[in-house]
Amino acid sequence: MTESYPAPYRGRFAPSPTGSLHVGNARTALLAWLHARAAGGSFVMRVEDLDFGRVRPGIMEAQLDELRWLGLDWDEGPDVGGPHAPYVQSRRVEGYEDALRRLAAAGLLFACGCSRRDIAAAASAPHAGDEGPRYAGMCREHAVPAGAPLTRWAVSEYALRFRLAEDEEVCFDDGVHGRACFRPAAETGDFVVRRKDGVAAYQLAVVVDDAAMGITHVVRGGDLLGSTARQLLLFRALGLPEPRYTHVPLLLGADGERLAKRHGAVSLTELRREGIAPEAVVGWLASTCGLAVPGERLPPAELVPRFAIERIPATPYVVTGASLAALHG
After folding, report:
1. Which pLDDT does position 125 carry in this prediction?
2. CATH for 10-91+249-327, among 2.30.250.10, 3.40.1440.10, 3.40.50.720, 3.40.50.620?
3. What is the pLDDT of residues 171-190, one digit of tens each?
4. Is residue 12 a known part of a binding site?
5. Could you say which of 38, 140, 191, 247 would form a disulfide bridge with 222 (CB–CB 3.0 to 4.6 Å)?
């Protein structure tokens, strides 16, 4: 391993309890774990359960059990505790509310009653990828004044958005992709930090939690590369230390879409039910990112000496029928 790390290294994995983990989630978890263990650092498990409409009872426990079956462990988490508990986002609301108040005090929040249809209909709102149309600033005059109670903006009627500076470019060095630059104001526009249901939005919650838990390195899927610029702006606005980012490529099906049920049995639950050994799954995952040869079986611990960020490809791995068949033995 050639990369140097600031001490102490603290990494994390943060699944959402909405269903069984699939091999794409498992691959990201494995790489995040390897990154932390190869650096001699700590690994934190945090559960991101703020998408209440999709969260299902018992899934958190099942996901943690699947990750342990795979051979991963963590130093802090909802099932083992730790100095930064709670490790479940739905129990960390106070921190998000405090961050919103600080953003309001800095003049960076405004209330927005626009629907998705309103935003899409705005003449200057080009499409902004999988996050929908760019927000064109229709409600920017509805500033949230410093000290005003956030309950003044009725839940179900108003979201709270973070006010972006025009044309600001945000650049960072990604562990896999190298130098990455984005212009959030032009690409997504002012973004939501509190949803209309009164719950902290992903962009805010992940920033507050990473800072509160002392996370120094974030390893996550490449689909979140574009979110990083917005999160860095929140770190800076809140005066919080910024972690270093590594966005690992996704697993795609032969059709070029993200690996899903239609491509075959790809969840850890299904693989485990079939009697496939966890070492076979780990070996297969490692082979998709250059850390093992096809057909190799081994536990995660044996991959630690092999791990180096430089070995991780920047392009997605396309899973073919043949490679899935090999996984299933």
Report:
1. 45
2. 3.40.50.620
3. 999 999 999 999 999 999 99
4. yes
5. 247
Token output for 63: 């996901």
Does 16 appear as a known binding residue? yes
CA separation for the pair 138, 162 (Å, rounded): 13
* DSSP of 253-290: ETTSSBP-GGGSS-BHHHHHHTT--HHHHHHHHHHTTT
Q: Which of 68, 127, 261, 311 is catalytic?
A: 261
Catalytic, 196? Answer no
Burial zone of 70 (CB within 10 Å; 0-12 exposed, 13-18 middle, 19+ buried): buried
Decide whether 10-91+249-327 matches 93-205 in CATH topology: yes
Residue 262 has pLDDT above 50, yes or no: yes
The helix, strand and coil proportions of the chain, stated in percent and rounded to the nearest 5, come to 35, 20, 45
CA dist., res. 326 & res. 329, Å (int) = 5
139 is in an annotated binding site: yes
Domain boundaries along the sequence of the chain:
10-91+249-327, 93-205
What are the C-alpha distances in Å from 321 to residues 113, 217, 275, 325? 46, 34, 20, 6
Q: Is 96 annotated as a binding residue?
A: no
Q: Would you say 273 is a known binding-site residue?
A: no
β-bridge partners, 228: none
pLDDT at position 9 is 96
pLDDT at 128 over 60: no
- Tell me the two tokens of residue 263: 């491509």
Q: What is the percentage of the chain residues whose pLDDT exceeds 70? A: 92
Q: How far apart are CA 324 and CA 329, in angstroms?
A: 9
CA distance 177 to 248: 9
Given pLDDT bands bounded at 50, 70 and 90, which one contains residue 153?
confident
